[in-house]
Amino acid sequence: MSKQTLPKGAEHLLKSLRRYAYVCLEPLDYVARIVNGKKDFPPLHLRRYVGPLRTFEMSGAEFMVHLQTICNLQPRERVFDIGCGCGLMALHLLDFLDSQGGYAGVDVHKPSVTWCQRNIGDRYQNFEFAHIDFQNDVYNSRGVDRSSNFAFPFADQTFDCILLKSVFTHMRPEAVDCYLKEAARLLAPRGHCLATFFLLNEQQESLARRGLNRLQFNYGDAVWRYAQKNSPESAVAFNEDYVRELLRKNGLTLARPTLYGRWAGLPSGLSFQDMMLLQRQ
Q: Mean pLDDT score of the chain, rounded to an integer?
């Protein structure tokens, strides 16, 4: 039986009720953070945008390892965190980057960026955050910029390491194209970009026929597919050949073979999502 989708009115009501529930839980969350020595963590209503609350710390720790082992990140290097959210990776990088290194985080969710700048950027001079008004149906529905001429507010070849964690899994094809073009522009000559995807390919299709895919992308076309009919950008998957063509178009190439994730049913996947390590051609 196919999964039923809720009418848009019902979805909006459920989202409003969920937001209200998080507001009610804020005092308890604050006390819990104090008791557990995590006062510097972002509040509950911001952490929920990063992903499942139960995996907030685990996800940050996991990708800190990936940055060091896959990207060979060094304390002196400059990191660009596209889709920084409420500072998940910034919090982990505070004790890793030295005075020569630096961090810049951008996100379309303005409340998260504001919290990061006030609580991290204002305290650490080599950490900065910026809000980008790029339109996204889930995280910034009133955003004004979705053009191919969009550019991040940084100079060419500024960063040694660029991270796109769970960003392309919430974007349409034209937006992915735009961000990849910017990643190529911003990467230093020997820099690396670590990007995560849900990739559609023969291996994934074989696992899907056996009922092993942990996510179902039932809508869309041969280039991109999405899980929720009324909210495409909630979870997006791309044809792997299409992604590789975008890389070539934008002057990027794989620095190592793709690291396929567990989402498709691979028990040996290094992470949940598929990971691509990119470099300039």
A: 89
For the packed helices 240-249 and 173-186, what is the interaxial angle rounded to 10 degrees? 40
Among residues 97, 65, 90, the alpha carbon closest in space to that of 194 is found at 65
Position 3 pLDDT exceeds 50: no
Q: Which range (6-20, 75-89, 208-222) has the least confidence?
A: 6-20
Domain boundaries, the chain: 6-39, 53-280
Quick one: pLDDT at residue 2?
Answer: 42
State mean pLDDT over 234-259: 98
Which residue in 81, 38, 37 sits closest to 56, CA to CA? 38
Contact residues for 163 (Cβ-Cβ < 8 A; gap 6+): 63, 67, 79, 80, 81, 82, 89, 193, 194, 195
Q: Are 204 and 213 in contact (CB under 8 A)?
A: yes
Extended strands (E) in the chain:
78-82, 102-107, 127-131, 159-164, 187-197, 199-200, 219-220, 224-226, 236-239, 252-254, 274-280
Fold exhibited by the domain 53-280: Rossmann fold (3.40.50)
53 pLDDT higher than 80: no
